[in-house]
Specification:
Layout: H1 2-6, H2 12-43, H3 48-73, E1 80-82, H4 86-98, H5 104-117, E2 123-125, H6 129-144, H7 148-171, H8 229-232
Helix pairs in contact: 2-3, 2-4, 2-5, 3-5, 4-5, 4-7, 6-7
Length: 234
């Protein structure tokens, strides 16, 4: 918030990425490891079980670091991010546990799945500001009163996060986003055609009436600014 009001520096995106590594990569990995180790993975105290409990969270951290590094170096044009955001992965793991999913095997399996999904090239649209605010409110309630009303708030958060994870790449797009669902998921810079507006020649009839760069890519006041995609995706 301070950076938005006073202006940032070239160091800002890297510090932000480091903070995200600690909050949304290392912390969830340590949490899953602690749950798995305490459960002894089915009563076993060593060998393969401990190796799995260490390896999968370590892969989660490594994938998150790669994902954040690529995002920092190659921030895609427009309100979009490539790969499952670290904030979404961490939110789902925490919400699942608070909602009553305490089986170490399930948590390890989900963690391993996210280790892969974070480095895929599926395109996710940024949350609208109103949606990010609503999910933030549910997060606060889920943490403050996880057992209230038969775990209503963690389950609501889990349902919302799962809905975004599964359906957003295809159905959450809005006019002007420059991509349509999963069709553009294999190209981090292009839309469904695989060619972004910045790469399309001015004479290309498929480029539409406007030519040249959009002077205001965040013209929709209800859309979360592109530079804050990672922080708003929780």
């Amino acid at each position: 918030m301070i950076a938005r009001r006073t202006g940032g520096t070239v160091v800002g995106p890297y510090l932000d990425a480091l903070a995200d590594v600690a909050s949304f990569c290392v912390a969830p990995a340590v949490f899953v490891f602690a749950v798995a180790f305490e459960a002894r993975i089915g009563g076993e105290t060593g060998g393969v079980a401990v190796a799995v409990a260490v390896l999968i969270p370590a892969l989660f951290v490594a994938s998150g670091v790669v994902r954040l590094g690529l995002y920092t170096a190659h921030d895609p044009e427009g309100p979009v991010t490539v790969g499952v955001p670290t904030t979404l992965a961490a939110t789902l793991l925490a919400a699942a546990y608070l909602a009553g999913v305490v089986d170490a095997r399930i948590l390890l399996a989900v963690t391993g799945a996210f280790a892969y999904l974070m480095v895929t090239r599926v395109r996710y649209p940024d949350l609208y500001a109103r949606d990010a605010l609503a999910m933030g409110g549910v997060q606060v309630l889920a943490v403050a009163a996880p057992a209230a009303l038969s775990r209503l708030f963690p389950r609501a958060l889990l349902a919302a996060a799962l809905t975004y994870l599964l359906l957003a790449p295809r159905f959450y797009w809005r006019p002007g986003d420059g991509a349509t669902g999963g069709a553009g998921g294999d190209d981090p810079d292009g839309g469904a055609s695989g060619v972004s507006d910045r790469d399309r020649p001015a004479s290309d009839p498929g480029g539409g009436a406007p030519t040249g760069p959009d002077p205001d890519p965040d013209r929709d006041p209800d859309r979360t600014p592109r530079g804050t995609a990672e922080r708003k995706r929780s």
